[in-house]
Amino acid sequence: MKPSLSIRSYTRTMCMHAHDYYQLVLPLNGHIDISLNTFSGCVGVGEGICIAPGAIHGFTADEQAKFIVADLPSVPGNIAGGTLFADGSLPADGSDPADGSDPAKGAPIFQISTPMQAFLAYVEVQLTHHITDDENDAMLSLFSALLAQQQRGVATDKRIIPVLSCIHQDVAYPHTITSLAKIACVGATQFKKRFIAATGMGLREYLINVRMEKARALLSNTDMPIIAVAVNVGYDDVSAFTRRFKHHVGMPPTHFKRR
Q1: pLDDT, tens digit, for every residue of 7-50?
Q2: Tens digit of pLDDT for each residue in 38-61?
Q3: How many whole angstroms from its chain centre is CA 132?
Q4: Is 134 exposed, middle or buried (0-12, 13-18, 19+ CB in 10 A)?
Q5: Which terminus in the chain has less CB density within 10 A, N or C?
Q6: pTM reported for the whole predicted model
Q7: How far is CA 207 from the centre of its chain?
Q8: Which residues pair with 84 in a beta bridge?
Q9: How many CB atoms lie within 10 A of CB 257?
């Protein structure tokens, strides 16, 4: 099969099927409820799930939720389910290591790193526009490289998943610790601790990263004017947006503007 990346939405009606290739589901916003023989639960922003070839799985999601779906003939050993050798490699036949090393049964869930999350923002913009075969191949190549760096079996704090979904659903909104702590159903102090533990950064830094990476994707892959890009990521003042973008990326927005 030819590997592919696509943007998909699902319905609240439970569906069930299997396919003869690996499928990775990575939420852009919202979450998906998935049932496998080795896992049953929700997968939200900040996480991904690897569904192995032949695995029968049921799934349902809100119609407004969006996902990047990767259909692949193979995946790195750190992502594939099954038994791993101590060095993280996957036996070709899926059997236990013959050398007696301690295997680790991996969950199908993997955590999305900050670079991968930024890349997904880029993919989302790319896939909503016509791209060439060369651009598609380059996108798949970078996706594969980033995939090899993800951590399997490390699930995001379930209280933070709806928070990340809220942020990514509307990056321009003036999200605050108070409003997001209510979504997480915890106090502000507990929220800050949980958020840093889940994302590796505070809320302000996370919001800046998400907004600037989305801005970079829009500037590089659309004809949207800089002022419209600024508004799209929550800046009414273009000068403030330009300063923030240059500080974050190292170059002004005009460097990325399509001509």
Answers
A1: 999 999 999 999 999 999 999 988 999 998 878 888 998 899 99
A2: 788 889 988 999 999 999 999 999
A3: 23
A4: exposed
A5: C
A6: 0.75
A7: 15
A8: 104
A9: 16
